[in-house]
## 1
Amino acid sequence: MKEITKNIFYVGVNDRNKTLFEGLWPLPNGVSYNAYLINDEKVCLIDTVEVDFFMPFLENIREVIGDRPIDYVVVNHMEPDHSGSLALLRQFYPNIEIIGNKKTFDMMAGFYKLTTGLKEVKNGDKLSLGGHELQFVLTPMVHWPETMMTLCAPYVATQSQQTEPTTTLFSGDAFGCFGALNGAYVDEQMNCDVFWLEMVRYYSNIVGKYGTPVQMALKKLAGVKVDYICSTHGPVWHEHVEKVIGIYDRLSKYETEPGLVICYGTMYGNTERAAEVIARAAAQAGLKNIVMYNVSKTHHSYIIRDLFRYKGLIVGAPTYNTGLYHEMNVLLDELSQKDIKGRLFGWFGSFSWASKAVSEIQKWNDEKLHYETVGTPVEIKQALNADTIAQCEALGRQMAEALLG
């Protein structure tokens, strides 16, 4: 049995084979698709799993309730990695009632042609399961229009209870992270070190654009003492609830610590050598948090993750085909879509016979990124010389001073 707290069970699955989440984000440690079952007078399933894992998912359900029917399934989020089993679930449990909001059902009709046996809920609506009561909290654009969360608390505290009733938050994709679960399901039963940066990478690449809706969702939950957070990816949070909520609060406010991300493209090593000079100067100026990435070698999701952690960004690349080096163009386009606020920005570029990289990076910042410029951009013709080395050192030093303030 995978009981999380009284009569609430984990029935999710692990995917250790997928290499790219959503065809985009690397999964070095796999990913979990979490679903939960409340075994009460009424049986309620919270979310489902990706359809490829339906049979082990069904076995997990039957391990808890045997041949009992499921009365309700709550759909907190319609992405197919969570809703993909709905149509099959209806085949095994034909009388199951699907709970969601209006936007949930608009999508459900399109994805699965499910239009009957639906129960629409609005923000604040409640549903009794007997010993537990559900309350639905609509959280649109965290990170799809239909997203919602479900609060669950014991309906009536029994006389034998010596403590406050336990409140569980089924949070959909919010508070989730990459990484399969290795035997344990609740954070206090595992070493969570591997999950913290994967939570930041998950947030920054998938939820990161929607900082304002995340803040609105957190305000709706303010004042609720949450004992367990049951996300659809990653561990069930219990011991670390406050830390997890704090991470989301900080990231959604675009708050950072002093640190510098230097990312560069290079063909023959000259641009890379300039990046090394900049990093060395920043370190000598007292900046300790410095990370460096070759944009052609490191997946951009890790660069974006660290830009949510650190306030400073310096990019550099060569001119290529009378424009900007391709992978740097791709990265800057990705950053422009994230709407990351309040960053300090510097840049440099190189060329052999036609200068373009420096002006193209400036164009990205002027038109799309709108970051605060630090220092003077450095333009390198063919290879570093005494003048451009000094300019790179100045850029690194000025960025460090601005970050350390």
## 2
Amino acid sequence: MSGTYLGMPVFPPPAHPAFPKAAHEAVRNPTLRGNLRHATHTIRAKRATAVAEVSDWAALREAGKQIKDHTLRHLDRYLVQVEEAVTAAGGTVHWAADADEANRIVTELVQQTGESEVVKVKSMATQEIGLNEALEAEGIRAYETDLAELIVQLGKDRPSHILVPAIHRNRGEIRDIFTREMSEWGRPAPEGLTDTPAELAEAARLHLREKFLRAKVGISGANFMVAETGTLVVVESEGNGRMCLTLPETLISVVGIEKIVPTWQDLEVFLQTLPRSSTAERMNPYTSMWTGTTDSETADGPQTFHLVLLDNGRTDVLADEVGRQALRCIRCSACLNVCPVYERAGGHAYGSVYPGPIGAILSPQLRGTASEIDASLPYASSLCGACYDVCPVAIDIPEVLVHLRERVVQGGPVISGGNKVVLQPAKGHAAERAAMRAARWAFTRPGALRTGQRLASRTRRFHPRSLPGPGKAWSGTRDLPQLPKEPFRDWWQRTNGGKESTK
């Protein structure tokens, strides 16, 4: 995607730089770093407290992992079951192989209603496919109703967090956005608006209320789909989702095919782990569930319901035995809130609607690693493992990162979105492979290794602080370790009577 949507840069913007360059610019913004540090530290502390209250958290985590893995192994069967159940309940199911097909389906469905505006529940899937931009191109305006998404939309900005898209904004910035932009989208902000949370929330409530009451079409995603009944589930904390799901006459839900859980009993596991992992709440304030349509104009719920099942590269991810675990993700964002890289660089540096650790493994698999930004994302991590520790479905993100780094270094054909893309090894990787071959040669020759260690120790005063040539890219973001005055072998021989260990 490229261009703008109502003055807002399309995400990712054209020619988005690789992560190291984008992150380098981000860390030089003290306001951004302060906003991120305050928000992520607050959320992670509350999450830790909420999780500690549950004595069987480890068992719930393992159960979530097992349910997701089972569903992915039998995804073909459960997708058919979902389609049959939704159809039996009065809904219509559409299959979208990629973003273009999904956007075309949704646009045509809205056009069939004769409406020119829609209200939206916060949805990562619709952001992924650029639905707002596709609708605008056909003269249909989409109104985001989640508070953080509203801030991003009014500010002509881009989301920077999975759960809190406006996490990079502080209260003063939000007040200025509301005061400046609300009148262009509907009801203006109240006179004398301050930056207190209560006043900002009230301004958003008044602004959105008229849209809720006027809209005939709602668009949502879903956190989960229950295969046995065709029930869709949205969890949220503000009530805007409840309004979008119950008031419009037509509801269109765009849902990734991996969001299925087989049974209601399986759903119960995630309704315990998701709130605690995301918002540090014991239970979600609003859990909306709907099955098909309503027969009465006076009853809550849509009279017409369409489910768009989105692939967009997910079956390609499923084919990767290591990378497929990314499809377990329930979008809780816990990994973002503990990641030291995300905390300093922010979400925009990732060039994807999925930032942070999960974005570093999901985006390159969904989009392929042919572009500069996607090839750099697997390296947007220190591999500290904090993301794996907090993941409620036990995605081993460091393992997948290393796996994807190997893919980038080796190059070769990769299937992405149904298209075969031939990759070239990234710049500098030839030198990296040469260094690895040299290390292998030295480690298999003890005499050469001993000589090299002694020479390196005796000349350590003359060693540079950074590597020259291709190695400059490596040492540009790392400190070179200081060599000891004496190699370990020599120290061992000196302190153990001249004897080398045979172990």
## 3
Amino acid sequence: MKGKLLGLILLSLLAATPVLAESGGGSYTPGASGLTLPSLSLSFANSQKPGDMVSVLRIIMMLTVLSLAPAILIMMTSFTRIVVVLSFLRQALGTQQMPPNQLIVGLSLFLSFFVMAPTWKAISSNAVEPYLAEKIDQKMAYERAEAPLREFMFSQTREKDLELFLSLSKEAKPNTREEVPTYVLVPAFVISELKTAFQIGFMLYLPFIVLDMIVASVLMAMGMMMLPPVVISLPFKLLLFVLVDGWELVVGSLVKSFG
């Protein structure tokens, strides 16, 4: 998919090269380069055909799904656990807004791409490429694309959380995983991810809390009760985190937790 995207970008640049060359050499006459651009027009008119209304409703539904697609994909991937753990790490360090939110979200996205790479490859080879080659229809492509995502979510979802949402949905108890509806699996997966992230966050807090307590005890023994312990403990937290190579430990543990 990355290769196709880069290929489209290169083709766009090559197509724009003649126009740029002509505009740099002098006056530009519209249409002289022979390059035609497609136009798009939307209009609303009265129609007596029910099929026209169905087409409009399909377009509206498609645009709605596309607008919600990023949020849907985020909730169905490893992004939730990673971003929560990194947020806990920043709070445990006490560095306020460092690293900034944009950096945490960006790192979480790329780590999610790394963790989900086998799933994306399976979706691309089993669903996207056959569909683009017109070997399968849209329904079959959707089913094939859904299967790797469901397999990933099942591997990270606790049975207790899955049973909770099955009971809340009042669905009959399924005999196999294939019988579990996706709308039941997704919230169970999210709840499981949040619990795992909170457990990892608790383990991250422990060494920094101990360091805060030691610094506070030393300051009280010295009679410096007016000095906030956070001011003194923050440099030691950063030093400890750097000495143990904290980023490697945290990121490595996060990635291995999805194994």
## 4
Amino acid sequence: MNPSNPEERIARLERIIEISRSLNSTLSLRPLLHQIVNAARELTNTEASSIMLVDRKTGELHFEAATGLRSHEIRSVVVPMEGSVAGWVVQNDQPVVVPNAHSDPRFYRQIEEAISFKTRSLIAVPMAVRGKVIGVLEAVNKWGEQPFTEEDVETLVILADQAAVAIENAVLFQQSDLVAEMVHEMRTPLTSIAGYAEMVRREDIPPEQREAFARTIQQEALRLSQMADNFLELARLESGRAFLAQEPVQLDAVIEEALTVLKPQAEKKQISLQVATPGYLPTIIGDPPRIKRTLINLLDNAIKYGRPGDRVTVTARVGQHEVTIGVVDTGPGIPPEAQEKLFEKFYRLPAMEEEAQGTGLGLAISRQIVEAHGGKIWVQSELGRGATFYFTLPLPAE
């Protein structure tokens, strides 16, 4: 782009305004981050773009979003404040252009080695809200080996300013929304605990009833504890503060461990657990405990809503770029109008609320975990014909 052409500059600024409107109307953090990196790549005409956010507790920089087929491999990777271009930008609150990355002592080479991506040049600009830097927006490798221009820097600075405000708004909205819903959901078990505690104190209550009331108090207290744990996990995932491990994941082992955890529960309800996977499942890169948690959530739901004699089967299919895991049950099925709401926070099937007491957060957490790995999750079901929950996990690039 010719930097002296005022019409092209105006067109670029108008495009930034258009993108900013879209960013400020997006209150879900993960889609927002992907909008930002895609906009940065488009506006600077570069091969790739990424966002690093500063962890509010540790002060560390973590990759949170990036463009490209292998973007999931660098998500949540820690970037040091000392010895990195991004760290320098945070500490100095200034944009920087690096014409030759490998000759700059601030360039952090470990990321490049981890994902086999060659960085030749880059722009890095701070994202700040109310004078505080919350992250760094980068654009990497100008197409056609062209040098970065002043217009590129100006564009990325304007976009970063808009992006910082949008990210902060999304985080605050999700936290306040989640807190309000959490307080509302806690009222039911708290009311039960208070009511039964009052009943236990009455002198005219028979011993067997007193024992039953005590068990109810214990169950509701445990439910509150589980709800609090799930609430904290979901808050971390939605706000971008839950940094996923990047470790080899043996899917066979994860499936076996999840089935072992749920086996007693299934046997108690006379539901059989089965596995129908290929003889060999590839090793992927991700967070093993969280992937296992996703599978446990899906199996737990299938058993919880199942009937004696039902079957729950774990399946797996290996594709060219991803592995698809399925949890198939022969239970009562899910109404079409409910399927759209299943992954919402605190949603439970109305017909089963009394029978299947839970926190209503399991599927929402599972969706956050799967999407943070670069996959997707969905359900297929017909009333009276069971349900199947699928989720995908990307295969590492060769």
